[in-house]
């Protein structure tokens, strides 16, 4: 084969590989966690459908005891998660900000799987999180959900 034809074929393969690298599926299809931010609330969805959020400051949380009946959690919380199917959304007490990438998470608009004028949604596996019109964050997975608002966290 002519050397210039080989070189051209090699360049064509390299260009195709580069295009494929940039055309890979969205972050939501990767085996790594999907990170996103709604205002100052930084969240991630893990490959096992666990979801958690770091809040910029501690807020009150109500915790369901009997169905939808919620009791206030003892003290304000700064991290909320759903990580096991037998436990409703609950506070976590990790060191640092486990649901936030160094430098912060991308805005949900950058990784959303659907968007309307009033709502941005990201769905990964069995987990769905959405940013509402007023900046609230709602996440649902493993049969449970939570809503983060400026007033606090409501777990379901």
Question: Could you name the key traits of this structure?
Answer:
single chain, 2 helices, globular, 156 residues, 8-stranded mixed β-sheet, alpha+beta
Structural overview:
The protein has two helices and 13 strands; from the N terminus they run αβββββββαββββββ. The protein has 156 residues and is an alpha+beta fold. The radius of gyration is 20 Å and the shape is globular.
Write the layout of secondary structure elements.
Layout: H1 3-22, E1 34-38, E2 41-45, E3 51-59, E4 61-66, E5 69-72, E6 77-82, E7 90-91, H2 108-111, E8 114-115, E9 120-124, E10 127-131, E11 137-141, E12 144-149, E13 152-155
Parallel strand pairs: 4-13
Antiparallel strand pairs: 1-2, 2-3, 3-6, 4-5, 6-7, 8-9, 9-10, 10-11, 11-12, 12-13
By DSSP (H or I, 4+ residues per run), the number of helices equals 2
> Over all CA atoms, what is the radius of gyration?
20 Å
H/E series = HEEEEEEEHEEEEEE
Shape: globular
Show unreliable segments. 2-28
Number of strands: 13
Structural class comes to alpha+beta
* Nearest-integer average pLDDT: 80
Q: Give the percentage of residues in beta strands.
A: 35-45%
The strands making up the biggest β-sheet line up spatially as: 5-4-13-12-11-10-9-8
Distance from first to last alpha carbon: 67 Å
Q: How much helix is in the residues?
A: 10-25%
Major sheet characteristics = 8 strands, mixed
